[in-house]
Queue: 4 jobs
Job 1
Amino acid sequence: MTSAVTHLWRLTRWGRTLARHGALRGVERDRNAPAVVRRLARLARVGTFAPKQPRYADAFQAIGPAAVKFGQTLATRPDLVGEDAARDLQRLQDALPPLPFNVIRRAIESSQRYPLSALFDSIDEQPVGAASIAQVHRAVTTDGQVVAVKVQRPGVEAEFARAIDTYQWAAAHLEAFGGEFTRLRPRVVIETFKRWTARELDFRREAASASELAEAMAAEPDYHVPAIDWRRTTGKVLTLEWIDGVKLSDRAALVAGGQDLPRLARTLVHAFLRQAIAEGFFHADMHQGNLFALPDGRVAAIDFGIMGRLDRQARLWLAEILHGLITGDYRRVAEIHFEAAYVPAHHNVAEFATALRAVGEPMRGMPVKEMSIGTMLDGLFSITRDFEMQVQPHLLLLQKTMVMVEGVATSLDPEINLWVVAEPVVAEWIRGELGPEGRIADALVTNLRTLARLPDLVRRIEDKFPPAGGAPPIPPIPVVATVKLGSAVRYGVVAAAAALAGVVATLAVVH
């Protein structure tokens, strides 16, 4: 177990790094932060020359890979770190310098247990990308397939374990302060980060996620998930189909290639909605660097380390919330929040509906290009404190992805509006799930499942109550008091019992 002294030393070192980049200034000014935390933030700044504009992303990059990944997680929490910090932390993509290729070669051969030449005819020594966990190289397999090879940085697993250990220790102490820290649930944030990281550090899990998403999106022909090369995939090396396309972040190249940018934007939005609402399994890292336009106009995605899941009830709530915000039915949106226990029951539904209206109505008269789901979510974050809404990790991941998708879509088509594109998709799904057809389908599924259980139910009844004419029931066996017997008597009893058993067996054969 790591000692408190070690945790404090790590936190002090990280705090000084954050202070040098001006990243603690917001903590110093936050009246909701405990006084002792504000004093520690000021103390960490002593002797530093912090920039006027905080450089959060640079600070996390200076601390190390685990901090880079944690910074990416915090980018989903504007309610916790503030809007400016969240926007700056979104820069933490492909943020690390690459490792020398001889290190990568050893990592591949150690994980695959084969020499590199037995796996690939060629592999580019210069990576196409290097991030906090891994770097990616283009290669050609021995059977002539062009692939991307994602290789985990050696030692990153141990580094993450040390960092998360200290994050958990710090979160527990922060939550002990109570008040706002209790509502924001920092321990839940760290546990969510820990689970995401555990999945990302096992590349077989990422490969399985990609495979599952490809099956789920088979009905969406304009969205492509690369195929996995399972033979060349291990826990630390992921090999998958090479995507020969243009990143959606390179608008000039997309235009030069003759791509229909508004169509790409609509495809992306529809794909996300299908994943989140229809399938309940969505790619939760849909930033521009992970999305490509293929020559035939399809959108391709990569990097499936962070995936989100929603059960059917959560998807129903999500769809109704989106539809209510789109149509202005704030009362229904408020009711869903209470049904889902997102808002404590002692609050007033009508008051919450009014607060939602204050967020939604100002946007309803805006021009299409000025409306934003991101702005809507920012407004929703602002009322969470008043209504004591606790953090819902699965919704945070969804909200982050929605904002990300809208950002990519509007960069492709500034005139697009996620509400307008989403409305027919969401409405159709709601009709299918909550309309007469959906209710009939639910009833059929429930009844069929009940029928499928009937044979087992009958067998269990028969076991309990055998039918007449079967084996006769065993009569009650009377309780006989026992006494201790000497050895000779005990042996005599055993011999007599054996003899009696032999007689019974003989009679059975004779008759």
Job 2
Amino acid sequence: MDKPKVVLGVSGGIAAYKACELLRRLTESGHDVRVVPTDSALHFVGAATWSALSGNPVSTEVWDDVHEVPHVRIGQQADLVVVAPATADMLAKAAHGLADDLLTNTLLTARCPVVFAPAMHTEMWEHPATQENVATLRRRGAVVIEPAVGRLTGVDTGKGRLPEPAEIFEVCRRVLARGVTEPDLKGRHVVVSAGGTREPLDPVRFLGNRSSGKQGYALARTAAARGARVTLIAANTGLPDPAGVDVVQVGTAVQLREAVLKAAPEADAVVMAAAVADFRPATYAAGKIKKRDGQEPEPIVLVRNPDILAEISTDRVRPGQVIVGFAAETDDVLANGRKKLERKGCDLLVVNEVGERKTFGSEENEAVVLGADGSETPVPHGPKEALAETVWDLVTRRLG
């Protein structure tokens, strides 16, 4: 079979060196990659490097190999175009249809999915001109992933850092797998919770659960690849931030509730994949609880945590908002799931059987998605991203 053809556009930012790692991941996973750098990008990484890593010639000018009409053919033949890093200048040119070099010509002729991975200083990313250009590109169907927060050039830190190449690769892989040029979640804002809350007993101990957060992260990555603006509320996962996702770190159920209630009013959909502790200790010991010889420990008194899923399902601020819950069951899975769906008042409930060797920490999952309309959508055992795709398929139908 022919290898999927990917065009890797590289614009002139200091993060251009990171695109080498993205290129390696694309080629090693079986993609035929053509690198199209701008002249400015070659000040950071030379053409010989791109050619050696991709196994294909590198051009920056429309006048190179004129008989092959490269300014038209490269875009026409591509299955995916990804620009990483995408500078503020490149986003502006793409949004306004300028074509003054080979890369911008390629963007104009491409009829395949296009992904931009921005990288720039925080002030440039937040400037109204850049934000309008990003909105224009997203409205036209391009996937513009949110930049990461972290160290920039010099001593500066903030939002504008290029996401890690491994995470950009995951976005590209998901976009290619869908094979559509129009992201169905473009213009949508979604909130996803992930991980497991921890309720502290004392400075060194807590009540927790086995949730790894991998399913929630798969949901966040998939939504970003489908064009959504994603807020991921992560509880104690230790996982790398997905590319193109705004991550809010929390620890306890109360903190998770605060973050969800803050983000939910502006969201088109909320997916509560986090395992939220039902109870927390009634009191917190300021010092470590000591083991005393000949004495049994004092009983731990628990109190209920807030029911976040029921709360946001009942008090919906945004009309047409879709809310999805998760139910981890150990017996009578579907019967208990139906009862929980009715009790919580959400639109969809993902029900799966859990146990010591099931679901938690695994790369795979198996579930049934129950709908408030009486529907049942089984998802066979497979990668967690497959379940994520099914969930977003069902959400987009309800969003209209």
Job 3
Amino acid sequence: MTPGHGSTVDAILRRSARRTPARTAVDYGDRSWTYEELDEAVSRAASVLLDQGLAPGDRVGSYGHNSDAYLIGFLACARAGLVHVPVNQNLTGDDLAYIVGQSGSALVLTDPGLAGRLPDGVRTMSLRDADDSLLARLAQAPAHDGPEPRSEDLVQLLYTSGTTALPKGAMMTHRALVHEYLSAITALDLSAGDRPVHSLPLYHSAQMHVFLLPYLAVGATNIILDAPDGDRLFDLIEEGRVDSLFAPPTVWIGLANRPDFDRRDLGALRKAYYGASIMPVPVLERLRERLPKLGFYNCFGQSEIGPLATVLGPGEHKGRMDSCGRPVLFVDARVVDEDGKDVPDGTPGEIVYRSPQLCEGYWDKPEETADAFRDGWFHSGDLAVRDAHGYFTVVDRVKDVINSGGVLVASRQVEDALYTHEAVAEVAVIGLPDERWIEAVTAVVVRRGEVTEDDLMAHAREKLSHFKAPKRVLFVDELPRNASGKILKRELRDRFA
């Protein structure tokens, strides 16, 4: 093997395997892997992939559900010098074909039940549950002994969620992700003694890069679940097998709304992480009241930065429940106006970043890359304010701010006001075209009790200035969202425009 410096994603696992070879690294279903076994499986899987005629730099799609095989596939691509392309397992049709085609994936690792959704002519290999799957071939494959990838090599095309436009492939290097792992470890207090469960989709950067890989770096024992099933999560917590859980606000809302939430013994849970979208303050207050000893961490960022940018720790929530915290170890952040100039503390502006965690740009999209990376800073598209102590509070996505009668209204503030009504299970506030108001503030609500449009409009007017209160309230059975929990406001605007 050609000597290398080891600042790569796969070297994270290799070091842990040398340090604690016999310790359990991953449990999935009835399979369990020690660190030594997992490291060996990754080396063999790297050989399997290269035997398919692939060469370093080739893109390999990954279109599968959570599993140990999914993790091995990602780490094997990293070790072989291939570029992993995680694909949302819920995508079908043109959305699926777009990412596979735009990335130029030469092979797609998939689950047998999903392979039929892929476009004709796409070359596939099963991840698991097939006689010739990646997992099944490990026993016959030799360990990979080729050259190590370099830290500046691409390791992943991390596609944005596409909530406002077509997804873009953020080009992540080994160096960027390794920096992000260290930021996550230090900001989130991750340690080998933690007992984390990983139930959100592994294709998504938050579960994979903020939690699973950093936890492998510190040597923890990780449980991977197919999905965030409330019964299974509560059972694992009560059994003492899990004390650390990450979930987006939509999942935390679902757990808090379960009939057995107040009855189950959840005292073993020590660390609660939330992120991927804004957590309504009333929901967070309800969780903290029910579980007063639980440490809550707000994790904020986006795909292009690996994705962790800021963290609000357990000791920082008092007095700033709506804040997303301060920048992590390797992130520098500012709040600027439309001309890129710093705005005074307390003034809304766009967050911009400079960091070794940042992507190299967007795959095959030079114009979008140039627009996002201006004046040496990455422009996030998030509207926020910074206080005198360096804490950031996200007001909205720049594209989600509502222009009502010439006055800008942040949808988050309206949502927080409506969440204080006991009959509101979920709410998304959008702007809809209006002849008088330009955009009418409109609340789309999922009910959990009897309530009318007039009731909620009156409730909002008690909490908000008149111009911020909704002009309309629409009721739906559920809000559209992607697998990471982000509500698709673009879809709501298209549906109700």
Job 4
Amino acid sequence: MGGANGKSGFRLWHNARLATMAESAGLSIVEKGVIAARDGLIVYAGAEADMPASFGQGVESVDCEGRWITPGLIDCHTHLVYAGNRANEFEMRLAGATYEEVARAGGGIISSVKSLRAASEDQLVAQTLPRLDALIAEGVTTVEVKSGYGLDADNEKKSLRAARRLDGERPVTVRTTCLAAHALPPEAKGDKDAFIDLVAGTILPAIAAEDLADAVDGFCEGIAFSPEQIARVFDKAKALGLPVKLHADQLSNLHGAALAAHYGALSADHLEYTDEEGAAAMAKAGTVATILPGAYYFIRETKKPPVDLFRRHGVKMAVATDSNPGTSPLTSLLLTMNMAATLFGMTVDECLAGVTREAARALGLLDKTGTLEAGKSADLAIWDIERPAELVYRMGFNPLHARIWRGQ
């Protein structure tokens, strides 16, 4: 179902069941649906009976044979560009070491920093592509990629350049995020304030000058940076015209969710320890809660994110893999949805919205993708399923029939 567009650049998928994910109750299902696209953009998505007759004339038409179509999936939080792996730390944790103990023993993020600094940009791209391919094979059409394993100007730029190259290598939309405020590099000798000066004064301006990042992120945690230090990074990001996101309230409650909301962040992510004040602030600011069950599962956390609190306050929830070498070596968004439902009690509707509409919102892309609506990119996933719940219910099974990116 790939193939070239017709001469008009017009293409039609008919005899389909649509979960449009448009802003309304549930999945916005259309039973006898059709999608028409021109030049990579959706021009009609809805009931076949209501489609303008002119759309069906002389165009390439694909019979979906009753299959389901959803928006292409979106992984809105990954650390996909890295070198090597951290299987040794996995063994340490199996033997009883905590996340903090691993980090303080020279493992954790810093071991990935050493590996990334030693790798060339070409090597980073080559090592990342298999991980990206695994996501694409499950219907992912948009992926966010963070830096944060460089921790100096040259290596952060190298990481983000590698990420920028990915969408030239594969038919996928890549959004890049600068996470220089991720951890303290060895050369900082424990001086967090001096390193934050470097991030805000040197690294972010250098990255903005080369247009390497679409957003700025930070890790607000006891083992990383304080709210005051993150605020300095966010002040610089705002001055450079870059939106912000935040790793917040993962291991403790430093009121990161409220800090993210104060800066109008696109999203706050993890959020296991977020309190009611934080949830209310996020709702008011329109900051998306990105739920990351992979990390919760992998580091055997016991404190769950307050999903009920987010529902009560009307906080939008995205779901993402957090694909990274140390705490979530996960490259399956389908399995991630199952984890969000099984571990955190999210509904099928919430999980599917979380990897489409709300993931697009978390990247500031909801005007371009994330739902099946006229004017948006023709990013589609076509599934061999009887009902959408199968996408959340199954484990280790991929029912993708075809993936369409920008109409192709």
